[in-house]
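Form 12-C: Joint structure prediction
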Amino acid sequence: MAQRTAFTPTVTLPSRAFGERFSSVILTMTAVALIVTGRVDPALVEHVRSKTADFVTPLLTVIQQPLATARDVVDRTEGILNLATENARLREENENLKKWEATALSLEAQSRVLRGMVNLSPSAPAILRTEPVIAEPGGLYARSVLIGGGAHDGLAKGQAAMAGVGLAGRITEIGAWSARVLLITDLNSRIPVILEGTRTHAILAGDNSPSPYLMYLPKAAAVLPGDRLVTAGHDGVFPTGLPVGRVASIENAEIRVEPIADLDRLEYLELVDSVAQSALTPEIAPAESRGFFGTP
Amino acid sequence: MVAPHPTALHRLDQNARRLLPVVISLVLALAVVLPIGLPQWGILAPPLLLIAVFYWSIVRPDLMPPTAAFVLGLFQDLLTGGPLGSGALIMVLTQWTMRGQQRYLINRPFFLMWAAFSPVAIIAGVLDWLVYALLNFHAVPIAGALVRVVLGIVLFPVVTWLVLIPTHRTLPAG
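Section 2 - Result
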């Protein structure tokens, strides 16, 4: 027995080293082949990816609970510390919002009358779900998040994802229980938008920086910093009129946009596939036209 | 040392412990994508998995074989949405380079291992960036990749002392 163990290293080590080197070479080539495959057949990669996401979703969802609690505790402590200033700010904001509410209500009424006059059929009601962000992967090169809802929850590829009042991105990969939302800042994100004031069309393109830029904007278009952008929704799946961002800077014909949604801290996303008419709260909005903000 | 007549339970426990390096690496890969509420955490994505694969390839290459490194890298690619295969490539190459380095890095001052990690992190970061740039025909600024590399190097002793070395102590002898 002792003799055998004494011999073992001299006999097995070279062959084991050879085996390891062999598998390293094979695996390196496989990895390179995979990279190329991903370029040639993105649909296949997407499929495998959504399956993996489905697989880890239960785990991520479970880990989510203590994390949410921890975030809550931090938020609450912060809240208590800033109670006085926060109160003053909210009071001021409330005053402002009341004025806006009055304006919105009168515009809503006016809009309904005008719609009736031109016989415009209202767009389909918003199909809405709110899903937790279970992972914000991406690393340096992809701006995307995983959400804990998928095809089983009625979600579909192409749906818009809102964070609060601003567009965050759209679903690009869908699994049974999870989906990947490509954020508007991603290099591969292209969202048709309209400049709200002038109704000029353009494409909002991400480049992995925090502020996406405008492409294909007509040269003659008048753009000013602060102009609001909303979705154009050309393809029929994507809803129209969702707030996207504001023009932040114009330098050498490069127009940068500040997203309205806080993409750094996404906790929940609202999935919308066709926006309703009203953006008013249920208490004040007519029941038939509840919008995506309208759900309690 | 192993008892003369190990019970089934004992063997099971020993075998389960042999999986620890891979399991711990998996957990670290997951930790990077969790929305823990730190701004930019998901974007910076410190290369925790790289740290783990690097460490285990040196101290217990028998428990971090090339296949395990490959699968872990692939899992990370699938999770992060980055180019599929680039993480796998980096992990396999890291395992390949480091598994023969025990005699230079084990039972030596810790900073030697830390110093050895730096070039690995830099090469991995540049490789990652290069694959992405080639696949997208678009040279994204490399600054982000470098920030990530620095973050990896800074976090190396933290992850090693808090997670990897304590795990290493519980492992059965090879």
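Section 3 - Comments
Chain A has three domains: 2-40, 82-121, 125-277. The mean pLDDT of chain A is 79.
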